[in-house]
Hints:
Elements: H1 2-12, H2 18-69, E1 93-94, H3 107-113, E2 135-136, E3 139-140, E4 144-150, E5 153-160, H4 169-173, H5 191-195, E6 199-202
Antiparallel strand pairs: 1-4, 2-3, 4-5, 5-6
Amino acid sequence: MTAGVGALKRRQSAGFTVVELVTVVAVIVILAAVVLVAYSGYLTTTRDNARKSDIQQIASALSAYAIKKNTYVDSTSNDGSGNTCGFMGSGNGWFNAGPNAFFPASISTCLKNAGVLSKDIVDPTACVQDGGSCTNSGNTTAYMKATCTKSGVAVTYVFAHLDGQQRRDTEVDALCDSGTVSGFTAASQKWGTNYGMNYYVTVK
């Protein structure tokens, strides 16, 4: 009788049952999923906070440039070597694009050579202009700059796309009077609809 009870106890403590193992695995999977979701949200918030900070720095550099040059970078601006800035030398468009056929010099380079920006400020994804891996579901993770008029008053904006924020196409598209962005048509200046820009700072 005693030997039988000992054998029974040994069998009972020999290991986990299948049900116990499945339960443990299920709990681990659930915990891993929760951690992944939380970590993904953390990364999104971190990137978006970096973008907000970057946009403020760019706006400050443009303000300093305006004090020195009396313009927020336009068709008269250049990189110090005679290359005009931005899309087709208009002073507008992708902040970091160039030098190439469409962007003689980047707006960033023009600000650096003017001594108002110490280094390139690039989106956390390293995207510098529309296209390729920079574009996801119509959203482009690169910074943009636009000088235009709003209700006839000159204004300059710096744009970004925040992953954690909803698109605001109607609002962003209406920031400039139609057709008032140098180098851009009325249709191409729709920063929200065309590129998914949903965050902006007004340069002062």
